[in-house]
């Protein structure tokens, strides 16, 4: 079963993160949709996730994961040493999410904002919902 990553399509940092994942997801485990898209909103509704999210979301099977937990679970499926980052899941979630939220709160200021979602390359297009 494919895992779905919902991301902020207007965030430059989030777009760069999606590109980072695509390059290291050699087994093509992940599919992608922006939170702003109809598909993204529909998936949030289907999984009873909060609708006002502007966070990174991972849908895996019948569960969804948010913030640092989502990011660390993605690392587990990437090639190379990035799998080792999953080890940080032992850090208490409030501590992990404090760091995550600090970066998330400042992401537009530090990395900028797009007016629209990125256009994937032809070979990656089928991975976007």
Which helices and strands, and how do they pair?
Elements: E1 3-7, H1 12-24, E2 30-34, H2 38-46, E3 57-60, E4 63-66, H3 67-75, H4 93-111
Parallel strand pairs: 1-2
Antiparallel strand pairs: 1-3, 3-4
GO molecular function: protein-disulfide reductase activity
Features:
DCC_oxidoreductase; protein-disulfide reductase activity; DCC1-like; 129 residues; 4 helices; four-stranded mixed β-sheet; globular; alpha+beta
Write up what this structure looks like:
It holds the Pfam family DCC1-like. One of its GO terms (molecular function) is protein-disulfide reductase activity. InterPro entries: DCC1-like, DCC_oxidoreductase. β3 and β4 (about 65) form a beta hairpin. The chain has one domain. The chain has helices at about 10-25, 40-45, 65-75, 95-110; strands at about 5, 30-35, 55-60, 65. It has a four-stranded mixed sheet with strand order 2-1-3-4, with helices on one face. It starts with a strand and ends in an 18-residue tail after the last helix. The model has no long low-confidence stretch (mean pLDDT about 85). It is built from four helices and four strands; from the N terminus they run βαβαββαα. The protein is globular and about 35 Å long. With about 130 residues, it is α+β, with helices and mostly antiparallel strands. The longest helix has 19 residues, at about 95-110.
């Amino acid at each position: 079963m494919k895992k779905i990553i919902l991301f902020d399509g207007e965030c430059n940092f989030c777009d760069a993160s999606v590109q980072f994942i695509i390059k290291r997801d050699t087994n093509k485990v992940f599919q992608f949709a922006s939170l702003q898209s109809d598909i993204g909103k529909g998936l949030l509704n289907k999984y009873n996730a909060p609708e006002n999210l502007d966070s990174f979301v991972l849908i895996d099977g019948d569960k969804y994961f948010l913030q640092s937990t989502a990011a660390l679970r993605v690392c587990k499926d990437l090639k190379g040493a990035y799998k080792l980052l999953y080890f940080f899941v032992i850090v208490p979630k409030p501590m992990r999410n404090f760091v995550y939220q600090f970066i998330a709160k400042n992401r537009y200021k530090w990395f900028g904002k797009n007016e629209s979602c990125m256009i994937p390359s032809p070979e990656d297009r089928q991975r976007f919902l």
